[in-house]
């Protein structure tokens, strides 16, 4: 069977595009450090409030300048709604939800996670400047979605 010249050219083009896409993906994940927040474990949605560390949401010191920040998302609020953290500290955000998919984004930062029932999301961040930061749910989660926000006070 003879393959037409144009057909051959398009097949080659397809191959080139595939390689470029793979290269862009590798560049984004490896070189730029962009990745999905780690799926750091699984949790039974019905037992979130009784499973450590989610049985005690909030800020917990784990080292000299290190804190776990445990958050639960729920329609339509975060637990806790307001947290205080020291400026410059290493914050390990550990979050989940038990009802529907929520977002966890801290305005003006790269902190951006998806909260999925049954999964634990983790992300580490350090605030360089003191101030008040808004936490918003940026995944549509129903009628009260726009009321789902919290506050981080960095001091
Ligand atoms: Cu929770 Cu939108």
Automatic annotation (TrEMBL):
Main location (coarse class): other
SUPFAM superfamilies, alphabetized: Cupredoxins
Ranges of residues in domain Cytochrome oxidase subunit II copper A binding: 62-155
Keywords: Copper, Metal-binding
Alphabetized InterPro entries for the sequence: Ba3_CcO_II_C, CcO_II-like_C, Copper_CuA, Cupredoxin, NosZ/Cyto_c_oxidase_sub2
Gene3D superfamilies: Cupredoxins - blue copper proteins
Domain of life the protein comes from: Bacteria
UniProt xrefs under Pfam families: COX2
Molecular function via GO: copper ion binding; cytochrome-c oxidase activity
GO cellular component: cell envelope; membrane
Protein name: Cytochrome c oxidase subunit II
Organism, scientific name: Rhodothermus marinus (strain ATCC 43812 / DSM 4252 / R-10)
């Amino acid at each position: 069977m003879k393959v037409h010249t144009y057909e051959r050219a398009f097949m080659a083009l397809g191959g080139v595009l595939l390689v470029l896409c793979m290269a862009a993906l590798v560049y984004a994940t490896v070189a730029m450090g962009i990745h999905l927040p780690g799926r750091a474990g699984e949790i039974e949605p019905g037992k979130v409030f009784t499973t450590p560390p989610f049985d005690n949401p909030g800020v917990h010191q784990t080292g000299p300048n290190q804190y776990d920040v445990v958050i639960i998302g729920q329609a339509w609020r975060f637990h806790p709604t307001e947290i205080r953290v020291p400026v410059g500290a290493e914050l390990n955000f550990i979050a989940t939800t038990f009802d529907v998919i929520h977002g966890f984004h801290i305005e003006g930062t790269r902190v951006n996670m998806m909260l999925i029932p049954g999964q634990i999301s983790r992300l580490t961040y350090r605030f360089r400047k003191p101030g008040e930061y808004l936490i918003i749910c940026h995944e549509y989660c129903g009628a009260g979605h726009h009321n789902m926000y919290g506050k981080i006070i960095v001091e």
